[in-house]
Amino acid sequence: MLEDKTTRSFAIGAAAGLTAGLAANAVRKIFVQAPTLAAGEWDDALAAEHQATLKLFDQIQSTEDGHVTRRRLLLTQIGHALAKHAMQEENAVYASLRTHGQVGEADKLNGDHGYVKQYLFELGGMAADHPQFLPKIADFRAMLEEHMREEEEKVFPRLRSVLSEEDNAKLTKAMNLEGLKLA
Ligand SMILES: [Fe+2]
Ligand SMILES: [Fe+2]
């Protein structure tokens, strides 16, 4: 009897712990996604994420060869930011681009994301105090800035203008849901 009670209270406690864990995870996800949500419509939100990512590049580019731990940490942060960003773009925005006739543009941008992963892979395999570490970061940044310019100045404004106000709002919602998956 006593054992039964103990087992039951343990089960209730574990369930409560699990619920609290899930709630904490949901809160954490919303917290991570908050700046994107706050930035407004999908294209403004993505532009804000571009700026936030470039700030991480500013930080890693101001390190010295001895700052190995800091370089690793910043590279991990860059990787997380870009993974969430890519999920939002590829699963919502680029898909919408193809639906609205910009197939070549979507495929080109999607291809760039493959090279983003290539840079992350190569930098991840390189000693953080290697003399080529910062030059590679600089190449990576140049490639990203070109990609961001193409999105912000050419491709995204065109998509925004062909979508109705309602479809733009739907795309913002779909994009945020994708972001929450990786937040
Ligand atoms: Fe992109
Ligand atoms: Fe982007």
First and last CA, distance: 45 Å
Q: Which topology does CATH recognise?
A: Four Helix Bundle (Hemerythrin (Met), subunit A)
Structural class of the helices, strands and pairings? Answer: mainly alpha
Order of helices and strands: HHHHHH
Instruction: Figure out the total of helices.
Output: 6
- Largest pleated sheet: none
Shape, principal axes of CA atoms:
flat
What's the total count of β strands?
0
Compounds present? fe (ii) ion
* CATH C-level class: Mainly Alpha
The overall pLDDT, averaged over residues, is: 91
Binned strand content: under 5%
Architecture, according to CATH? Up-down Bundle
CATH superfamily: nmb1532 protein domain like
What is the radius of gyration? 21 Å
Which parts are unreliable, with pLDDT below 50 for 5 consecutive residues or more? Answer: none
Fraction of residues in helix? over 70%
Features:
binds fe (ii) ion; Four Helix Bundle (Hemerythrin (Met), subunit A); 183 residues; mainly alpha
Polypeptide structure, described:
- The protein has 183 residues and is mostly helical.
- The chain has one domain (39-182): nmb1532 protein domain like (Four Helix Bundle (Hemerythrin (Met), subunit A)), CATH 1.20.120.
- It has helices spanning 2-38, 42-61, 68-99, 103-124, 133-162, 165-182.
- Helix 1 (2-38) packs across helix 2, helix 1 packs across helix 6 and helix 4 packs antiparallel against helix 5 (133-162).
- The radius of gyration is 21 Å and the shape is flat.
- The mean pLDDT is 91.
- Bound molecules: fe (ii) ion (FE2) (2 copies).
- One fe (ii) ion is lined by residues 46, 50, 85, 89, 148, 151.
